[in-house]
Design brief:
With 227 residues, the protein is mostly beta strands.
């Protein structure tokens, strides 16, 4: 199996701070099925500071922060060598993070298929649904198409990616830094442009840093020797 941990933090100065921490475990069953779960801790804090009008509000009578636990789960199935099917659910317990009244975090469900014709090219198509009480179907759902190409030769540790959905267009690259037999470090970058003319945002930058460790395994789950 594989274990992982992650922490994210989002802050709007003077308004709101949202933090999330998760623990992950996944494993492979045979050669075709793999599954994983996340146990997540959510924390919301409203940054009212010394604002007297906010501190006297009934909304903050029991404090300005709230936390909750929830979980994610997902499964991958490979019916053919070049085709992979996936299904996942996030925030499955729909945790309540409201201060006074109920404020649930909607659950999200996603299904998709990936096609890998060779070792360098991958294409993926996904559909997503967010189980929220407000908004029309367009606000709750999304369809996404993504492509990834890994460069050959000495650039085999680098790749280019692009994606398009009903709501945004993205493009970026990934680079494997210091690849080793027992560990590796990967840097990923993407730029996302929102497909909404009423939105004056010029887009957003997304950066990820991943550290992987452990021996490589063959299809039977046995540790593979290095050459």
């Amino acid at each position: 199996g594989a274990m992982g941990a992650a922490v994210t933090s989002f802050k709007t100065a003077g308004l709101l701070q949202e933090n999330m921490g998760l623990l992950h475990y996944s494993r492979l069953w045979g050669n075709r099925v793999s599954a994983g779960v996340n146990l997540k801790y959510l924390y919301h804090d409203y940054l009212i500071g010394s604002d007297p009008s906010a501190s006297m509000s009934a909304v903050f009578s029991k404090g300005t922060s709230q936390s909750a636990l929830t979980m994610d789960a997902g499964v991958l199935y490979r019916p053919f060598q070049k085709i992979t099917l996936g299904l996942s659910g996030r925030n499955l317990t729909q945790p309540d993070v409201g201060l006074v009244s109920k404020d649930t975090v909607p659950s999200e469900y996603q299904a998709g298929v990936a096609w890998r014709p060779n070792n360098r090219l991958t294409a993926a198509l996904d559909a997503q649904y967010r189980n929220q009480e407000y908004g029309a179907l367009d606000d709750k759902s999304n369809v996404m198409l993504g492509l990834e190409y890994l460069f050959p030769g000495r650039f085999r540790t680098a790749g280019a990616r692009m994606g398009v959905s009903l709501k945004e267009v993205t493009g970026g690259m990934g680079l494997q830094l210091w690849p080793q037999n027992s560990w590796s470090l990967r840097l990923d970058y993407a730029y996302a442009l929102i497909l909404n003319m009423a939105n004056d945002s010029s887009g957003s930058h997304r950066v990820g840093l991943s550290f992987a460790f452990g021996k490589k395994q063959d299809a039977a789950g046995n540790a593979a020797g290095t050459k």
